[in-house]
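Figure S7 source data.
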Amino acid sequence: MVSEPAHSKWVAVKANIATREGPTNCGSAFLADYTSPFDATVVDRLKQHGYRIGLKTNMDEFGMGSFGLHSAFGSVTNPALDATAQPRVAGGSSSGSAAVVAAGQVPLALGSDTGGSVRVPAAFCGIVGYKPSYGRLSRWGLVSYASSFDCVGVLASSVDQAEAAMQVMQGHDSRDETSLNVDWAAQEAQDTPVRRVGVIQEAVIHELAPAMHDRWELALQQLAQQHCLEIDTVSVPTLKQALAAYYMLVSAEAASNLSRYNGLCYGAQSGAPETFDGFFDMYSSNRTQYLGDSVKQRIMTGNHILSRGKFDSYYLTAARVRAQLTLELQRVFERVDVLVLPTTADVAPTIEAARNIEPVQEYATDVYTVPFSLAGLPAISVPCGRDPQSSAPMGLQVVAPRQLDHRAAHVARLLE
Ligand code: GLN
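Tokens for the predicted glutamine complex:
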């Protein structure tokens, strides 16, 4: 038996996943000095299987961002391009985790994926990004952004490496009520082989870059010709509303989750108040001073959506879109076994271009990833070559029905 090289068990961990060693600052000035007194369940389980925590990685503040430019501790540059090329973003929000794997510093990194934060940086950096079914991995010790979406995910150089780590980390955790009690090996053993690949017709949008479209078609051809899979066009009409619904729902959840950052319980404190009203002043001055702009934007949007008079028209409408989309995807999976589509519509933008992008355009980066987060489905991004013009990496995503993560892993391996 060949023994594994010592470094193969080093793992980097995103700064919003609690580890006893290193900072758990979530990319936020608010938690700049925070260190966790405990390990997240996923970290604990990795350690029990011989993995070692090598690095904590930079990220968009509290997971909010698609480019890795919203951290209090500086931005992350994409290491997949040579030094002569114009610097590009690494993607976000698991920007540091993707960059250290792509740069070969560690074979594996943990990230979190609420709406694409593992898959987008994986695609931009030319590595594998694996978001499991919602609930497969415990969220205990993952700092909450939008709890009904948040998943721990894995960034790695191969699907096998990512899957090996998943298997060590999976399993019910009594400290996370949403963690699943599923026999994952039995799910795989009882499943029928993958035969049909679905292509969502609504995923062909005008923002899709021609090189990305070509690469998608080539992959489908390869699956049909080399692996004898049937390719079927399917329709998911609500796909078009997914992005708007996602940003409304996550902002609402974030406004609630982030209310704990007031300077009393965690992190930044600007001096103890002397009067009762002083607590309110302290609360607002801490939040004004230590939270970044993108986080404040989400909190304000979220509170607006949750306010009386807006709740029905925004929150409930978005919740209905989520339910409808989930239903449509369930129906699609009665016809096909997996879906294959691009992870992003285009390659990573240059850092300069990304800095000048309006927030709404940044949100649009997630157009292909958020639908499956809304439905809690497993989705794996695999590298699929480079853009002939910029030579920036491109990624394709394989999506499977809930709790059938192995199907996504199987087809992702065929595309590797
Ligand atoms: N870019 C998306 C957002 O800002 C996704 C982030 C994530 O998955 N953490 O919400």
